[in-house]
Records
---
Amino acid sequence: MAFTLYALIQTAILFTNAIAVLHEERFLSKIGWGAEQSIGGFGDEPGIKAQLLNLIRSVRTVMRVPLIAPNVRLRQRRTLVGSKSMMASRRALKAVLIDLSGTLHIEDAAVPGAQEALARLRQAPVAVKFVTNTTKECKRTLFERLRRLNFDLQEQEIFTSLTAARNLLEQRAVRPLLLVEDSALEDFTGLETSDPNAVVIGLAPDHFNYQALNKAFRLILDGAPLIAIHKARYYKRKDGLALGPGPFVTGLEYATDTKATVVGKPEKAFFLEALRDLNCSPEEAVMIGDDARDDVGGAQNAGMLGILVKTGKYRPGDEGKINPPPHLTCDSFPEAVNHILEHLLGSK
Ligand SMILES: [Mg+2]
């Protein structure tokens, strides 16, 4: 009974509202108020007609609510359906990519709880790979450092931007001038470097002097391709933030009016290459890192989920520097692992 009465009232309101909408303009002209008359005018000329019109418009606004509300509900329902279908398109998690510097460790100090969190992650049915933009250390040195810090990993699980650079040099069959630290040279062993016809630039604090950069500049002017390990603006050291290779790469680009080929994060090709031997698509992977642009933004551009940790180079507000924002921003690597174990393993 109550439902029938409610339905009748709703029908009457809808009908009245429709009539009001259809006849409002005609009514306005009959009482001498054109459609151009704004509500704001009533305060200046509060005549009887204005007050009547104001009343009618107020009633109309109230009566419109039943018309508007279902539309809002429909939009909300569509949004929910949309997000559910997005979840449906994301497949079960198969792989976790983990940044090293700033995420698992800062120089020779591990992030608190990171070793134990990695051990917990390894209990889950997901592959783990360590992806790093390091340019100063070869893969072996990185591996030994992490083992000293008691992290459970294998050397072949590390994929670095140096490896990506070497792959590109071999594909192009060029002879590089290597502007990298001596400790990184091991990863380029066997490549022909005499009479260089390409420039590879990483972070090389001991080699970034005028003579070395000028040699690179002249080679590039002569047509040598400029290959950047990555273009990070800065990174985190024990004594604070420090310049990354980005400013030096950009300096050579500016001087020679060329664009570098970047091989490390955040390049999509880097993430796809890291996933290749895991037999895993980007939609089945998540990346954890302390660099909003290079780790999280890059991974998400490649189709992965990205988790930003507030350790290492993280600065307040970094999560707002990328669009879309990170899937999750959390205090540290152990918290990221908790999120994966609790929320991502079951998604299908
Ligand atoms: Mg990092």
---
Amino acid sequence: MTVSATRTGAAAPRPRAGADLVGGVSGDLGTVCVGAAGFGVDVFGSAVVGAPAVAAPDTGAAAPSSVTLKKPLHPFDAMAAATMSAPVPRVTRQRVGLGAILPNIPHHTMTERLYYTDAYQTSFSATVQELSDDAQRVYLDRTAFYPTSGGQPHDLGTLGGVSVIDVIDEDARIAHLLSAPLARPVGTTVDGRIDAVRRFDLMQQHTGQHLLSALFADQYGSPTVSVHFGADYSTIDVQGTGLDSNALQDAETRANALVFSNRDVTVSFEDAATAAGLRKSSDRGGTLRVVTIAELDRSACGGTHVRRTGEIGSVLLRGAERTKGNTRIEFLAGYRAVSRARADAALLSTAARHFTAAPDDVPLLVERQQQRVLELEREHRRLSNELARYEARSQWDAATANADGLRRIRINLEQGAVRDIEPLAQSLIALGACVVLASTRAPAGVLFAAAEDSGIDAGQTLRAALAAVGGRGGGSPRVAQGSVPDMNSLATLATTLGFD
Ligand SMILES: [Zn+2]
């Protein structure tokens, strides 16, 4: 895959030369206010740029004061525009995980975050500023490695040829954890390379999340409360439980329409006091890193994003479940959506091959086969019972009654479970004047059945006899089952029950 190292977007000015930026999004709590205009909650919250303060850009960065669609580009956009202007339920103050406000930190101890201004930069050179004793925890003057924060997983890649296994946001600095010691002393230059495929995948998921959060807040009155980016799929938790499968299908269509409209996604650095139209307003000072999807969303965020919605690629909503009064929506974007669709198609093709049918016919064929299996099971039960009745008659006739007038019929199964013999046992006791003892070797199980006219309670009798040999079991007055510790105790049990 090729990713360009250049950026576009006039509304994404770089910060002033020489201004080091720090910031990020970590897990403390902030308060957001969802206003009557329908602005929702962005879980990535404030990406507040710490000292020294960076002036708000003077390029007249687009800062729309509302999120209504002004120029429908597609029929779905027109549909979206019509409903976006509809009133959204007013939501009072909510508390969600938001970004940390950074303290004033001395200039020289900060790591310059290259991904703040160019998410497409996947190689860089930097100076080693500090190393741990084992030289596997590395601090640089600047880095393109994204640290785990705001729900977005860290980048992978190499530093000086050594694998980077974790990237940690320490507010002012970024720590790179390596799989082996870095063979570069402090003060020397080292080359970093980001795993571009992983980075771009996370950019697709993350920007897809911005788009979905905006969509669910504006179209369905369901602001986002939390997100999770997983290795296989991502989830977004939105307020409320009113989204049914029709709404999800509709949302998926709208999300893809917004992707295909290929809107600019731009980054700007704005003074928190004057930044307008943010999805989550901030009552804190400082410089915000604002990510804008043209005419859809403006959110303060420290993550990495694609530069146009078209690069998000297809958005798949795979399902939803209710959780704690919210709805958790599973989604995939971009290459992930394609590979998931490919995997789904492969599964369907495999199923279709088993039926020697077209994939489209699989659901109907599965349903038919389930019905057929039920019919066959019913027929199998009927035939088994019929066979058991014949066998029972034959064994009953062959047995002779003891002095007590009862036939004692002994059945040994070399393999199988005692419950398999139950139809035969039931048929035997239905003939009257008999008791049945069946046993299996592996596992060592017993079944004891007594005809109603025998005067014997099978459950009580077997339970007592089993207890005497260290086994366990019980059942109804007619049929009981249990297990014995070994074959010797089975012989004792048989004698106790009158079977010699
Ligand atoms: Zn973001």
